[in-house]
Design brief:
Strands 2, 6, 9, 12, 13, 16, 17, 18, 19 and 21 form a 10-stranded mixed beta sheet that branches. The chain has a 6-stranded antiparallel beta sheet with strand order 23-22-32-31-28-29, covered by helices on one side. A 5-stranded mixed beta sheet has the order 25-24-26-27-30, with no helix packed on it. The protein is an alpha+beta fold. Strand 3 and strand 4 form a beta hairpin. The structure holds adenosine-5'-diphosphate (ADP) and magnesium ion. The site of adenosine-5'-diphosphate (ADP) has 17 residues, from helix 3.
Length: 1040
Amino acid sequence: MPGTSDSVKVAVRVRPFNQREKNAGSKCILSMKDKSTTIKNPDTGETKTFAYDHSYWSHDGYTETPSGVYEQESPSSQYTDQKCLFQDLGQGVLDNAWQGYNAALFAYGQTGSGKSYSMIGYGPNKGIVPITCEELFKVIGTNEDGKKQLRVFFSMLEIYNEQVRDLLLKGKPPHGGLKIRQNPKQGFYVEGLKQVPVRSYSEIEKLMESGTFNRTTASTNMNATSSRSHMVITIRFEQVIQGDSGQSNTRSSDINLVDLAGSERADSTGATGDRLKEGSAINQSLSTLGNVISALADIAMGKKKVLVPYRDSVLTKLLQSALGGNSRTIMIAALSPADINYDETLSTMRYADRAKKIQNKAVVNESPTDRLIRELKEENARLMAMLKKQGTGDTTDIQSMLADNQRKMVDMQMSWQQRLEQARQEWEKSHHIDGSVIDKEWMKHPYITNVNEDPQLSGVIKHCFSKKCTFVGRSGSEDAIQLRGLGIEPEHIEVNVDGDKTFIKPCKATAAVFVNGIKVHEQTQLKHQDRLKLGSASLFLYIGYPEERGNDGTTDTYDYNYFMLELAEHAGVSVDIATPRDTHHTDDLSHRVLFQDFVDLLPKLAEANAISEELKRYTKFEAVVRSEASHDPKGTAAGKEVIIKVTNNQTKKVWIWSMNKFYNRKDLMDELYLKWLDGYNVVTTRDNDPFWDPVEDIFLGSCHIMLQSIGYCAEVDEHFTLHNYHGKEEAVIHVQLLPCDEKGHALEDDIVMEPKDLLNKTLNFTCVISQCMSVRWISEDHLRGVECRFTLPFQKPTKTKTVWHKGYVEFDFRQIYKYKPVTQKLLDYLHNNSLVLELWGKQVSEDEQLHSDGMPHADIETGNTDILTQLKSRVQVEISGLEGNCLGGNKGIPEDEAEMLREECEQIRKENFKLKQTVMVTEEKLRLLEMRGGLKRVGNKDRNMGASKTASSQTGLDVDFAKALRDFFQEMKDIQNGFKEMREFVTSTKDKIGANGIRQSFENHEHAINAIDDKMTDCLASLKKSAATALRKSRSGPDK
Ligand SMILES: Nc1ncnc2c1ncn2[C@@H]1O[C@H](COP(=O)(O)OP(=O)(O)O)[C@@H](O)[C@H]1O
Ligand SMILES: [Mg+2]
């Protein structure tokens, strides 16, 4: 039957305010009239109106029934409830299915906008998917036509990071996820996806429950947020109609129900300005969907030669026919009503507007059953022939198609009853249905239940404490509860149940455990509805004994947002930006946006930090509020934004990232982390390393110098404190603005009484910036430098020279600024503005650290980082032992002697700190070399870098290695000198101390230091020897 052209139907729906929006006093910026929706720009008041096939108002005008169902408050209310939505959209899908058309329903929108609410629903407010299934079975139940057999199949999958996971299968999916194959007739399909035959709605409910459970565990284990994954539920509905002549006809319809990933980072604009623009695969399906929709809209508008990029992502491959093919398709765009989400909401509305232009050609899928079988047979014959022709080439695609066809033929020939029975047996096998499941443990004992960023996945997992003592951790040893996730230790917490009390205890000091936002170190009693955070990202709500639970079974209050606010508050966020809580919400929109950004960012930073730690990248991420006022000559600019300070603790390099850049990088880190979890070697080069960037200048702090005195020709000669964005002191700087004549000679007794006397005359002054003291930036790392930047009115921006390596900086800056003639504008400026003096941090690039000349080519036996690692840990152990002995064991020593020792220990500690720094810097240099040379770091633990080299870069590498080697020896010399000093110090101190326990301890440490020194000398000698051998080899050419 030829298809008629259908355009994609588009509906928008606006949800009520959520708690966070309510707390912040958000305003609704959407209004609806008939089919149109209007959005108002909260800054300008400007409005835009879009017409859709449906505009659903679910923002207000509703009441909650005692059973928790939201429905219209009064008949005059505009409110659209879940039932109305089904009647408008779901019913049409069902009707199409009965007629044999394929149908598809997408939910699009930013995270939290209500996609899952419309598709799946919450509690008694069931969404389109369950109602559609329920209605389908209701009608099936009324079928009395003996010649018509109705079959329903259910499948459920998730796409995350371009990998397909079958949600109806427990456990880990195969490496790389399920394969997508292409069949000439059928298009793209997922190889081996479970299609479960179902006979009732309750079976579908059970399957969905189990799918959600699998999705939740997978997302926690992988640290993947469901907001970046797509869920596709497919209901295949077949009607097999027996004809009079014994022939049968099969009419089939695939209903694809798609809950898309959050649209907030749908396009790659987030990566603008980032060196790594490629973006991660995590975003690929959603951004490709946008491109496909744009291309299809262009085609519908008559544009020629448009290539639709279906093949660019897994999602668009699978939905090819739903988009621009054989399907009747509906898109629901979910909208947030709040002013803070204006940008995202507008972009969703535009997206929906584009989608409604797409034209599909749906056809009825109906064929005689034997023809279907015949076609499959013919197809198989053709495939077999292809297979023969292909010979030894790659035939996996053909073979899998053959297998798929074969399976379909078997299925078609098997009776429906047989298939149902088979599915029932499989279900029972995998779910161990027996009495014990019914007897739910958590009804009787205290338990913890998961809280996910996605409310759909919250409360899905329950861990019960039915024994006196339970361990929870990654190892999941016998009798323990297994919990995987970022920062979870093999044994993380111990839970003890004593009578009617439950206690929790971190198993070790490094196991992060937070109760109600506060980090706990000791055994702590839990109360009903306490909030737990374990590791860096696992959240749980504790549910107490049945008696404690009372009637209030609801745990809705303690959602993800509640956890985040609580944690943010205890992390001191409210100090930086006032927390808009129920009591004092602010009207300032930008302030609320800032707060939202900040709170959203905190958990992501914690994850990034934990990933950095697991992958041993030594990089720390912190949120900082950048304030315009620090750069504004009036000092009043209110603009604020959240920026991310990134510090590499090894190289001491610092970067400032925008939020968008951080999110882009976070995706790439997630991807790297997933690979690592999958057991791959995570090798990064500078070209793809999300943790690395070239060095940049860092704003440290600024001060405001009032310019009014200049108007009076009075000098400024003062020390100013430079403050960073937090208001913390960064340095103190001496600045002089000295009125002078043309040549820079100081003016004498020439003070102007009124600035207006200067009008049309000449004004000259010298700006002198001499010293800058206590520069924190440099005292933290002596490899750094600083410079000053400022702009005087109507002059070009000025920079001082850069001064390196000293905490006490001499800028020696002196420059004359001339104004001739003095204008009113200048006088006004001087009266109202300040000179903003900014201090910028400079950093040496790793290349500069590495590159200097004059070293012969050499090859290097890698593996010396091991020496460094050993050395580092030895230095650590020795010194802490020394400290412990001196301070812990001072019984019987006079207090003043102990005090002296304490000071000396402090001295040693400082020396040690310096040594460690040198070791670390050397180590990082080697790491960088390894990266530059493309050497693979094997695994994350094994630091043996292997000695493979790429032939093409042989010479360059030799030079690099030679240089590194030279640097290494130089650094080593410093370390050895350090040891020498330390040894002398220990020896001389030892002599000063009388014969007591401490002397003994010093002697012990003297031996220890000597031993390390000897060992290091040996190491160096052997390194030198092997380097020399390698050098000789490399000179005499390879393979000799
Ligand atoms: N129409 C609605 N009526 C009432 N609550 C809603 C509605 N839409 C969404 N919500 C609520 O908003 C929150 C986020 O919705 P959800 O559907 O999970 O968002 P998404 O799937 O887009 O991330 C949920 O707590 C949900 O109950
Ligand atoms: Mg959702």
